[in-house]
Amino acid sequence: MKTITFSLVAFFVVNASCKKESTGNSSTGSQQLKTYTEDITAVGGRTVETYSVNYDAAGRLSSLVSVTRPGYRQEYTYEHDDEFTFEKIEGNKVTEHSTYYLNSHSLVDSAYQYKLNDTLSFRYFYDEENRLIKKKEYIHSYLISKPVLVNTTNYVYDLKGTLTKVSESFAETTYRYDSVHENTVQLEPFYFPFVAKLPTHTYATRHGRTIQIEHSYLYDERKRLHQETAAGSDGRTIVKTYTYQ
To answer: In the chain, what are the domains?
Structure first.
């Protein structure tokens, strides 16, 4: 049985504030990234990958190109004011294609993703403060007359507008903030809500098992996020390093 599917590119944590298109300049210096490195250590070993980060003339994220693995990259294309596309390319072959549609607030309203033989669609719902509160995921197939809802993700905030919980059909993640850590990094177009506050602890529960993740952060002399470390109770550690233009 062949199924066609459309899916979201990446999970993102959202905050009350929505950041629109930016030229990447602020009082603390350029916020545009130059490189992004992800260093993952787990029980099975260690992998390190570095990407060059590129922007178009309007300051929008246009691509992340792997320096470590030639032929691997992620590309964003903005052909219309109310939509943009994403492609994941591996070994110079497109393995994922997504189209995103924007609402009147220039936030992602819906998305379709083609990945191999699968197709998923997504709908995004916001409150009056432009905070993402719900995301619905549907599967598509030529064998069914209409899309089938397969997952609903709900986002919960405290009274200050800080994200505290993300729950879906098969998993739940809660966030703890013991100290203030501001974010200067977004590896997605600014049509997605921007995460302005970073957690000190994350608790991820899936199939009855909870993994605790402790987060730590380093900043450069211009108060820009330079490195973040996430150490999990499962022995997995992820170190992300950023350099700026």
So the answer is: 34-244 (2.40.160.190)
